[in-house]
Amino acid sequence: MQDPVRKAFLEDGAVLIKGCLNETQLAQCRAAFDWAIENPGLHASRMYKGTAQQSHVDNANPAAKARLDDLVSSLPFGRLFADLWGSQHVWYFAEEVFLKAGGCGARTLWHQDTSYLPWNGMHWGNAWISFESVPKQNALEIVRGSHRGTRYDGTTFRDPNDPTQPLHGGDALPRLPDIEAERKADPDAWDILSWATEPGDVVVLHPGSLHGGAPVDADFPERHTLVLRFFGDDATWRSLPDSRFTRNGLLFGKELAALKDGDPYRSPVFRQLV
Ligand SMILES: O=C(O)CCC(=O)C(=O)O
Predict the structure, then answer these.
(1) What CATH number did the domain enclosing 236 receive?
(2) Is residue 256 part of a domain?
(3) What atom in ligand 1 is closest to the CA of residue 111?
(4) Is 180 domain-assigned?
(5) How far apart are CA 89 and CA 266, in angstroms?
(6) Is the pTM of this model over 0.85?
(7) Closest residue by CA, ligand 1 atom 3
C-alpha cells in the first residue's frame, strides 16, 4: 500500500480502494448479502417502517456469524487493514446490511457508529461493499476528518422529520448537527467526501466518522450494500451513556462484560485475521 493511502485514512477517516475484491470474492459477498436478506437476524430493522421510504438494515446476525467469519478469512481485509493502520493484529467484528429499493429508499441519516457501540481508538474500519455501480450522488458520504473530532449523540433513526433525534437523550453527548439542512443552506458548510464506485471497489471508513448514505432515486433505484467491520491493536472500550445501550443490549456486550473504559477491545468471540 502506498503512503498517501495510509495518510488519507489517518487524516480524512476514509479512502476508496479501487478493485479491492475480485469477481469470485464479490460473488461470495453477494451470496452472504442475499442470505442475510432472506434470514433477518435479531437486530434487523426497517428504517421508517411503514412509510414509502422504508429500507432494510441488519446488523451482526448471530446466525450469520460462522459463515461470515469463514468468508472474511478468505478476503483481503486482514492484510489490508494491518497495512492501512500499521497494526500487528486485525480482528473481524461483524456485518451490516443495507438494502434500499423501489427508487425511494431513504437516506441513511448522518451518524457515527461510535454513538451506538462502545469503541475508541484509531484501529477501526468499515469495509463498504456495494454490488451495483453506484453514482456519486447516491454514494456513501463521509465528513472529512470527523473521526478525530467530537463524538456526538446518535440519531434514533425513527423520525424522518427529526434526523438528529437524540439516541442518548441529548444531555450526555452533544446533539448531532443537521448536516443535510446546513449543506442545503451552504454547500460548503461541511467538507464531505464521496466516491462513485464500481463492483469490486471498497470504501473503507473509520466508524467514528460522521457518515451517511445518500438515498436511491428514479435513475438509481436499488442499492445492495454489505459492510464488514474490523478492528486492530489500537481499539479500546469506551462506555456509552444511555442504559438502553448497557452491555446486554450491545452487540457482543455479554462477551465483553468484563471490559472497562480504556481496556483493549478483545474477546475470543472475534475471529483474528492477522
Ligand atoms: O450504506 C449506507 O447507507 C450506510 C452505511 C453505513 O452507515 C456504514 O457503513 O456504517
Answers:
(1) 2.60.120.620
(2) no
(3) 7
(4) yes
(5) 11
(6) yes
(7) 213
Domain that holds residue 67: 3-249
pLDDT in tens, 240-249: 987 666 666 7
Tens digits of residue pLDDT in 123-164: 999 999 999 999 999 999 999 999 999 999 999 988 878 999
Distance between Cα 64 and ligand 1 center (Å): 19
Q: Is 108 in the pocket of ligand 1 (CB under 6 A)?
A: yes
| Mutational test site, ligand 1, from 46, 211, 223, max ligand atoms within 8 Å of CB | 211
Ligand 1 site-directed mutation target among 93, 98, 134, most atoms within 8 Å of CB: 98
- Kindly state whether residue 111 falls inside one of the protein's structural domains: yes
Quote the CA–CA distance of 97 and 72 in Å, as a whole number: 15
Is residue 153 in some structural domain? yes
